Amino acid sequence: MKNLSIDSNYMCDVMERMLETPSPSGMTDMIVGLVCEELEKFGINFELTRRGAIRADLEGGLHSPDRAIIGHLDTLGAMVKGYRANGRLEVVPIGTWSARFAEGARCTIYADGGARYRGSILPLKASGHTFNEEIDTQPASWSNLELRIDARTGSEAETRALGIHVGDTISIDPETEFSDTGFVTSRHLDDKAGVASMLAAAKAVTQSEVTLPIDCHLLFTISEEVGVGSSHVLHGDVAEMVSIDNGTVAPGQYTSEYGVTVAMQDSSGPFDWHLTRSLLGLCEQHDIEHARDVFRYYRSDAAAALEAGNDIRTALLCFGLDASHGYERVHLSSLEALSRLLVLYMQSKPLFRRDREALGPLDDLPTGEPN
Ligand SMILES: [Zn+2]
């Protein structure tokens, strides 16, 4: 098993391009196109599902059982819910995020026929000179927000005349900044930072001489933020699946801000005993800074796969993300640690050879440490 060096410049470059490409759940075609082009650059074969989730193939020595690494391309966003009498728009969130973090956001409205409008999401009481201290007492809630369109409109009729419809998708500006201290601050690092570390790992493997023991699929889903996730991109041969998503750097959490975090449990229950411990073992053997954590309000692609009836071993590997679903920040060393671990995981032996079959006798039940 080889430790391969990770091309950090590439990882930052592709992350920046992904962050610049709006992809709220439901409007993911552009980002899917971008990721497909990256895969083509590395000569990686892939297929798309009807709606555009990507299943890429890194070929291994054995074609069964397979493993999969999965990340999501969709992000949070918003949608036009209705018109206000003053011509501004009522909005609802796409995905789960607090109105508190929408206040002041710059955004783009995608109207029919390719028309685009820019605007700002503001609290209803936005003017300090009019509302004074009332601004501080208005609760943060989506019903207390409105979208101010950067166009001349003062009524519902004028806004309708712009061609803006109920149900138009709104993307939120990421406000990305790469600092020379290694931090990246941006919205939507969940999960574009994770996908960047997957692509950096794929680049390292395809540009090296290493051979993988079994097929490894890279799956890129498009509706994680709304809970549908991976269910449709798996096929029967996948026996183990590792989700890549954010770990939360927050009080009471043990997520490593500068290393990789192995999630032991999320809202959907414990992750696979053997797969989880084998990943921890790889971190220990190869000196990768790591931590374990348990998440309370968290549901990853893995849960969707299991709920869809797939009998597979799942794990969740996280990069450390501060202020997730808000003003997010990640450190590059965490993404590099994650990439290094993925490169090792791809080269590792299948957890259990018996996992090639969906059903087997009692003798096959794993008892000790993974082989
Ligand atoms: Zn996520």
UniProtKB/TrEMBL annotation:
Domain of life the protein comes from: Bacteria
Active site feature: 224 (proton acceptor)
Coiled coil: none
Binding sites annotated in the UniProt record for Zn(2+) 2: 190, 225, 325
Residues reported to bind Zn(2+) 1: 72, 190
Metal-binding is among the record's keywords: yes
Bound cofactor: record note: Binds 2 divalent metal cations per subunit.
Cofactor(s) the protein requires to work: a divalent metal cation
Keyword Signal: no
GO biological process: proteolysis
Annotated keywords: Aminopeptidase, Hydrolase, Metal-binding, Protease
GO molecular function: aminopeptidase activity; metal ion binding
NCBIfam families in alphabetical order: trio_M42_hydro
Family listed: Belongs to the peptidase M42 family.
The protein's name in its UniProt record: Peptidase M42 family protein
